[in-house]
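REQUEST ID: PR-0412
SUBMITTED BY: lab tech R.K.
PRIORITY: routine
TASK: structure prediction, single protein chain
INPUT:
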Amino acid sequence: MSAVAETLDAGDEPRIVVAGQWKLFWWKFRKHRLAMASLVVLGMMYFVGAFAEFFAPFPVDLPNTRYTYAPPQMLHLFQDGRLAPYVNGYKVQIDRVAMRRTFVTDEAVRIPVHFFVQGDPYLLWGLFPMRTRLMGVEQPGQPLFLMGADRLGRDMLSRVIHSTRISLSIGLVGVVISLSLGVLLGGVSGYFGGAVDTLIQRLIEFVRSVPTIPLWMGMAAAVPTQWPPLRTYFIITLIISLIGWTSLAREVRGKFLVLRNEDFVTAAQLDGLSDLAIIYKHMVPSFLSHIIAACTLAIPGMILAETALSFLGIGLQPPIVSWGVLLQEAQNIRAVASAPWLLFAPGIAVVSAVLALNFLGDGLRDAADPYA
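STATUS: complete
OUTPUT:
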């Protein structure tokens, strides 16, 4: 109780005694400043991913061959003492040593950047026709590459924003599937015990004993290449989820072994409730906060798994864009040497999301036991 009491005044201690589980959970969680900051960061990332078409300056696959491997531009907010955002243009130089074209900033050229501009038409969530974008330039074809451009002159910022939706949603969908399998099989294993427990635990040990990457590679290689992108997306999510449920199942089993002998479980059995009702109405809610924390910590693993599969070329493939697909373009050392933003742009997004999810999971895990 002392940990929660530190968040309140001395006169508010009676509130702790009568506070519910979720209120205690929130009081403890809000003390974790890093977790709160991570929650804000993740909220912004998911919001940007949900409205990717609006936030992306250009369509995800719009090429501009005049600016292949163009470096990132600096966004200047003020011009002549007033708010007038702009970016400098490029001028082309020839590298006599490498015998290739290079771009350098042309300070004499200023390209105005406007907000809430009317750009190329798109379908928001595939349903609502729109043209408005958060930012853009006046004339089509003008460069606006805040994170640089790739080998086809496509805007890396737009591609990272669109890939955020795919990579983060894979983590959420994968955890939902893993949560369902983990709670169901782990709950059955811990509640019934005996031969059922032995069978499920041997299954978990078998799955965990197989090397993860070769198993993913074998399952992903079985996905037909001619399948449409949406079907491939769900199959890859399912493949990742079929591996990630074992840890949660072990944790749920341990909790059930402790809880099945508690008085409230015995009372529910005497009232005639079915085993499934006891599990989902009484036992699971008693440690739901712990499950939430465990799921939050599992999402980074899902994201990294998709990134690894796509990076190896056996996960998601173009035209789908994910962080792993973008990182796949950074496999060529020559491309990275001449255009390091191909690695840094998606790499920073992956690191930021994984760190934020881990910090959030730490905060939720600490708050799951508010009396600690």
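NOTES: The radius of gyration is 26 Å.
REVIEWED BY: pending
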